[in-house]
């Protein structure tokens, strides 16, 4: 008997093949997973950024909202520059004339402000910026709103230019002030250029167009021209101090040779009225403004939008001022009240 089972294989069940994976559904799931993951990863950083910007803008948006009689405290810190000052997060320490004048105008127009207190800690800076701030302070004085200055570590040169427009100036005994004068220095690097083989070529429209160039020394004619500019600026400075301090111009010129005074020395030559810190100045300013009891002090700050935090003109101005200061120190150039 033949064994058919050894010859013929058993029948195989006809099982349908598994369906291919649903490619479209899988792609649709990735469409949602990717953006959700991205948002989830970025959300904490976005929240942190919003909180940071909000905190900065809140602290720098300008005057604190308060009613009633008070003293407006306005700070002058660092180098005095034209335009916007160092209000940005990444900026250096500068005070811009535009910022400061805007704060002074707000204080002048606010009827609740009975006196303005300047807290100055500055070595000086731009003659034009100092003059603009001085003129604004004199307008406030003419409006019969008291302006008092409290000098911190230093209120020299342009810093004193501004202070001289105050009704009263207070300083600590160890404060450094004065330095009434103008300086404009240039570096002659022509010998160094020869040694290193650097030979710049200059094309100019007039003989004075490259005045002060480091390629060559000043000519006698150029030096006389620059001295005229310096002395004219100096005369403006002296007249401003004499007017602001109600002193004879001749008396101011006797001490306006660039020398620096301590606070106690400055009082003896009538550049300062009283010895005292910010506390004493606040009490005196409050009394002058007709405030009885403990004066309320509101600090006025430059207005700062959320965009200014990272891209403001103030940041650029501060960085430019710092860079210019470094270049001036390296080359000895730049005119200023310092």
Account of the protein in words:
This protein is an alpha/beta fold and 338 residues long. The protein has a single domain, classed as 2-enoyl-CoA Hydratase, Chain A, domain 1 (Alpha-Beta Complex), CATH 3.90.226. The protein contains eleven helices and twelve strands. It has helices at residues 23-60, 97-109, 127-142, 158-163, 190-196, 220-245, 249-255, 263-268, 278-288, 308-311, 313-331; strands spanning 70-77, 79-81, 94-96, 113-122, 147-156, 168-171, 176-178, 183-184, 260-262, 274-275, 297-299, 335-336. Strands 1, 4, 5, 6, 7, 9, 10 and 11 form an eight-stranded mixed beta sheet that branches. A two-stranded parallel sheet has the order 2-3. The longest helix is centred in the first third of the chain and has 38 residues, at 23-60. The radius of gyration is 34 Å and the shape is flat.
Strand-helix topology:
Elements: H1 23-60, E1 70-77, E2 79-81, E3 94-96, H2 97-109, E4 113-122, H3 127-142, E5 147-156, H4 158-163, E6 168-171, E7 176-178, E8 183-184, H5 190-196, H6 220-245, H7 249-255, E9 260-262, H8 263-268, E10 274-275, H9 278-288, E11 297-299, H10 308-311, H11 313-331, E12 335-336
Helix pairs in contact: 2-3, 3-6, 6-7
What is the number of beta strands? 12
Q: Give the total of domains.
A: 1
Shape: flat
- Quote the distance from N terminus to C terminus: 126 Å
- Indicate the CATH class: Alpha Beta
Helix and strand content put the structural class at alpha/beta
Helical coverage, percent range = 40-55%
Number of helices: 11
Order of helices and strands: HEEEHEHEHEEEHHHEHEHEHHE
Radius of gyration: 34 Å
Mean pLDDT: 82
What amount of the residues lies in strands? 15-25%
Q: Can you tell me the CATH topology?
A: 2-enoyl-CoA Hydratase, Chain A, domain 1
CATH architecture: Alpha-Beta Complex
Low-pLDDT parts are 55-63, 87-91, 311-319
- Fourth-tier CATH superfamily name: 2-enoyl-CoA Hydratase, Chain A, domain 1
Largest sheet, in brief, is: 8 strands, mixed
């Amino acid at each position: 008997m033949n064994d058919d089972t050894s010859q013929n294989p058993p029948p195989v069940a006809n099982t349908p093949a598994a369906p291919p994976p649903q490619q479209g559904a899988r792609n649709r799931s990735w469409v949602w997973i990717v953006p959700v993951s991205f948002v989830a990863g970025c959300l904490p950083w976005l929240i942190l950024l919003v909180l940071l910007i909000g905190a900065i803008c809140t602290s720098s948006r300008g005057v604190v909202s308060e009613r009633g009689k008070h003293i407006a405290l306005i700070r002058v810190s660092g180098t005095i520059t034209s335009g916007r000052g160092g209000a940005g997060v990444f900026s250096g320490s500068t005070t811009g004339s535009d910022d400061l004048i805007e704060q002074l105008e707000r204080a002048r127009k606010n009827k609740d402000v009975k006196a303005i207190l300047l807290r100055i800690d500055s070595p000086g800076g731009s003659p034009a910026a100092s003059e603009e701030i001085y003129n604004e302070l004199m307008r406030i004085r003419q409006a019969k709103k008291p302006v008092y200055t409290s000098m911190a570590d230093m209120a020299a040169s342009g810093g004193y230019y501004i202070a001289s427009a105050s009704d009263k100036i207070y300083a600590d005994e160890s404060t450094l002030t004065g330095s009434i004068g103008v300086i404009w220095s240039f570096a002659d690097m022509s010998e160094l250029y020869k040694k290193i083989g650097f030979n710049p070529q200059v094309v100019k429209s007039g003989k004075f167009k490259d005045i002060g160039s480091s390629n060559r020394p000043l000519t006698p004619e150029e030096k006389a021209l620059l001295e005229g500019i310096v002395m004219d600026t100096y005369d403006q400075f002296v007249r401003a101090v004499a007017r602001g301090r109600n002193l004879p111009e001749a008396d101011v010129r006797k001490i306006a040779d660039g020398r620096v005074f301590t606070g106690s020395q400055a009082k003896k030559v009538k550049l300062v009225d009283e010895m005292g810190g910010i506390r004493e100045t606040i009490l005196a300013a409050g009394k002058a403004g007709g405030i009885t009891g403990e004066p309320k002090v509101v600090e006025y700050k430059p207005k700062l939008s959320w965009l200014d935090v990272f891209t403001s003109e103030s940041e650029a101005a501060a960085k430019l001022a710092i860079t210019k200061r470094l270049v001036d120190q390296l080359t000895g150039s730049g005119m200023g009240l310092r």
